[in-house]
Write a structure and sequence with these properties.
By secondary structure, the protein is an alpha/beta fold. It is about 25% helix and about 15% strand. It is built from 5 helices and 8 strands. Strands 3-4-5-6 form a 4-stranded parallel sheet, with helices on both faces. Strands 1-2 form a two-stranded parallel ribbon. A two-stranded antiparallel sheet has the order 7-8. A hairpin with a 6-residue loop joins β7 and β8. The two termini are about 25 Å apart.
């Protein structure tokens, strides 16, 4: 996460293993600024990308290390603005975190309507977030499926731009997830459990698409 005026009210605690020269900062800075927009926050930042900023890559081992770091610090709400194929090690870590009372929010994926489920969003118990535009229409490249929990704004979202030092527009389920992570974090800050906050989230959702729960919007849009 780069320094940015949009993060002046937040305390950033970086994962030392993720502080690397030349690491990409645009995605993480934008996501962090969306979380920070939900109120004063302490944000634990775990950069999982390796390689040059123009060709970043990661691995299951790196993501596992980042998750373990967060679990060691007893962080109640974890946002995962990433999506990929299923991995048994990550599945286990996510399930362990959920069993320990953590709230995990993840991007539903940008593979398109016919794409297979994306992980870790599709792990049972994870709050999977899809993206909608200002008219509450689903993002055309968003994944769909029974694992979708709720929808949030994720098309042309205004967030911090690391290189320009100003603000820019971002699109994708990665930028919808932190809206919900911020919502959950506020709920958890009041002393509520992960289960109670998940129930409140469902209750706060505005039904979209087919009546009731559906594969496109989940339980609906959460402002």
């Amino acid at each position: 996460i780069a320094q940015h005026r949009a993060l002046n009210g937040a305390q950033i605690v970086p994962w030392k293993s993720g502080v690397l020269p030349g690491a990409p900062v645009e995605h993480g800075t934008a996501v962090a600024s969306i979380v920070a927009g939900h109120g004063k926050a302490t944000i634990y930042s775990a950069n999982i990308f390796r390689g040059p900023a123009e060709r970043p890559f990661t691995s299951a081992d790196t993501i596992a290390g980042a998750l373990e770091w967060m679990l060691e610090r007893d962080i109640p709400t974890i946002n995962l603005s990433l999506a990929g194929p299923r991995n048994a090690i990550l599945d286990r870590l996510v399930r362990d975190a959920l069993a320990k009372g953590r709230s995990i929010v993840a991007a539903a994926g940008n593979g398109g309507p016919s794409a297979p489920p994306a992980y870790p969003a599709a792990v049972p118990g994870v709050i999977a977030v899809t993206a909608v535009d200002q008219n509450l229409h689903v993002y055309r490249y968003a994944n769909r499926g029974r694992y979708i929990t709720v929808a949030a704004r994720g098309v042309d979202v205004v967030a911090a731009h690391s290189r320009a030092g100003g603000m820019a527009r971002f699109t994708g389920t990665s930028f919808a997830a932190p809206h919900i992570a911020g919502w959950i974090a506020q709920c958890r800050a009041g002393g509520s459990s992960a289960g109670a906050c998940r129930d409140r989230l469902r209750g706060a959702a505005k039904d979209l698409g087919q009546a009731g729960f559906d594969d496109v919007y989940g339980f609906g849009f959460v402002p």
